[in-house]
Amino acid sequence: MLEVVAQTTFRWDFIWDSRWIFFQGVKLTMAIALVSFALSSALGLLVAVLRMSKNRIVQPLIASYVNVFRAIPLLVFILFVYYGVAIQFNLNASAIQAGVLALTLQYSAWLGEIFRSGIQAVPHGQREASLSLGMSRVQTFFRVVIPQAARIVIPPTGNMFIGMIKDSSLVYIIGVAELLRVSNRLANRTFRYFEVYLATVLIYLALTMAVYFIVKYLEKRYAPLDVLTAPARSWWSPTAKRRANRLRQLQHEVLAAKGIHSEGIPAEDTADIESLELSPPETINDDERSTHS
Amino acid sequence: MSLRQIHKSFGTNHVLKGIDLPIHQGQHIVVFGPSGSGKSTLLRTINLLEPPDAGSICFEGKEYGPSMDGENLQRGKPRELRQQVGMVFQQFNLFPHLTALENVTLGLRRVKSVDRKEAELLGATYLDKVGLLDKIGAFPSMLSGGQQQRVAIARALVMEPRVMLFDEPTSALDPELVGEVLYVMRALAESGMTMVVVTHEMGFAKEAGDLNIFMDDGVIVEQGGREIFTDAQEERTRTFIKAIL
C-alpha cells in the first residue's frame, strides 16, 4: 500500500537538479531552429524570386522544387538525408548538419511560397508610382515592394518559426542531443516519465510563446502611427520622441522660411484650402511658357 | 514635347490608333472621353509606363519608345524621361509603409541623391504648399482621400518635373473632397506648369484647359479650346458633352 502511494507521488526536485541538462538541450534546439530558419529564409527568398521568373525552364523547375519538398513527411526526409545519403555515401556529415539541411530544404519551400504571396500582394500601382518618380526597377523592388511585402509576411513567417522550433525536435531520431533527446534520456534513466515530459512540454511552450510575443511586438512596431503624435502613446520610447521633435523642428523651419513664427502647430487638421498658396516651381519662368519643349 | 503616331495594343485590342499630340510648355491639356477610349493609356504612354508598340515620344531633343522610320534622333532611357515627368494616379498610390514626408522625399533621396536634411526641408516645404504641413508625420492610411491625393501631388512636384500628368485624379474621391484637390490643381495650372489631365471634371476643363481633347475608340475625335464645350463640330463630341454636363 505504501509503495503504491510512493509511486504515484510526483517528485520535482530532480527536475530542478537536472536543469543544466535541459538547458543544454534548449541551447541546441534553439541553435538548430535559428540556423535552419535563417538559411531557409534566405533560400526561400531566392525560391520566391525565381518562382516568379518568366523563364520557361527556371519557373517550372522551382515549382517542382516547392511541391516535392512540401510533399515529403519531415521525419522521413530527416532519416533519408542522414542515413540514406550522409551515412550511406560516407559524406562525413554530422547528424546536426544533416538535420539542419533537411529542415532548411523543407522550410525553404514553405517560406518561398509565403514570400511569393507577400510580394504579389503588393499592388501593381505601387511599382508604377515608384517607376514614375524615376526610380529603377531594383530600387523599386528593394525600397517599395520588399518593405511592404515584409510587413505582410510577418505573421505567417512567425508561425513558420514556431513550427521550426517544434519540428526541430524530430532530429532526435538521428541522435542529435537537442531538448527532446536529453529529456528522453533523462526519463528513461529515472523512470519519471510524467515529470520529465511535462517539463519538456512546458519548455517548448515557453519557447513558442516567446516567439509569439516577439511577432506581436514586430507587428506593433511597424503599425502606422503618426510620428508627431506617437510619443503620447509610447512615452517610454526615446526614438519616437526624437523623430517627433525632428519633424516639429522641420515644421518650424518651413514656417520660418515663410516669415511665420509660431509656437507650434495645432494638432487638428489645419488644412485650409482658402489660404493655400502654390508657388511656381523654379524651373518654369514666363519666357519659357510659350516655347516648345 | 511631342507624341507622334502612337500605337498601342493589349492583345488583339487596339487601344491607341496613331495619336499625334504636341505638348507645349505651360500648356494645360485636358483629355476626356468615354471609358475604354484609350485616354488613360495615352497618358501612361507619355512617361512610358505603357511602352507604345509604335510611334515616338520626343522630349528635350531625345527620343523615346520605338522610333519613326528614316529618323536618327538621340535615344533616351525611360528613367531619364520619368525624372522630368511627374504623375498623379487615380488611386493615389502613396507608399503605405512611409510617412507623408518620407513619401515625398523618397524620390529626392534615391533618384536625385539629395542628402537627408535638405530633402526633408524641401519635402516639408512642398507638403506645406499643398496645405499639409501638420500631416508630415502621418501615414497614408490616416489621411483622407483628398489629403492623400495632395500628398501624391507634392510627391510628384518635389522632383521639379517639366510636365505633370494627372490620371483621373478626383475619380476615386468622395464628392466633398474633390474641391481641395481641384484647388491645388488650379493653383498649379496658374503657376504655369505644363499639365496633361485626364478627367471628367468639366468645370476644371472649362476653367484651366487650354486644349481640350475628346478621345473615342483610340483616336482623337476633336480638339479645341473652351469653345469645344459649347460649339463642338463632331456629333460624337456633342453627344458625350451633353451626357456628362
Descriptive key words:
heterodimer; A: 293 residues; mainly alpha; 13 helices; 0% strand; disordered C terminus; B: 245 residues; alpha/beta; six-stranded mixed β-sheet; five-stranded mixed β-sheet
Please characterize this protein's 3D structure.
The complex is a heterodimer of chains A (293) and B (245). Chain A has 293 residues and is mainly alpha-helical. Residues 264-275 and 279-293 of chain A have low confidence and may be disordered. Helix content of chain A is 71%, strand content 0%. Chain A has helices at 2-8, 13-17, 19-51, 58-71, 74-87, 95-120, 124-132, 137-167, 179-190, 193-221, 230-233, 238-257, 286-289. Helix content of chain B is 35%, strand content 25%. The longest helix of chain B has 16 residues, at 175-190. Chain B is globular. Chains A and B meet through α7, α8, α12 and α13 of A and α2, β7, α3, α4 and α5 of B.
Major sheet of chain B: order of its strands? Answer: 7-8-9-3-10-11
Question: Strand count, sense and closure of the main sheet of chain B?
Answer: 6 strands, mixed
**Rg of Cα set of chain A:** 29 Å
Provide the succession of SSEs of chain A.
HHHHHHHHHHHHH
Number of strands of chain A: 0
What is the number of helices of chain B?
A: 8
Kindly state the percentage of residues in helix of chain A: over 70%
> Helix/strand/pairing class of chain A, anyone?
mainly alpha
Shape of chain A: flat
Largest interface: A-B, 62 and 72 residues
Distance between the termini of chain B: 31 Å
User: Between the first and last Cα atoms of chain A, what is the distance in angstroms?
Assistant: 104 Å
Largest sheet properties of chain A: none
Helical stretch tally of chain A? 13
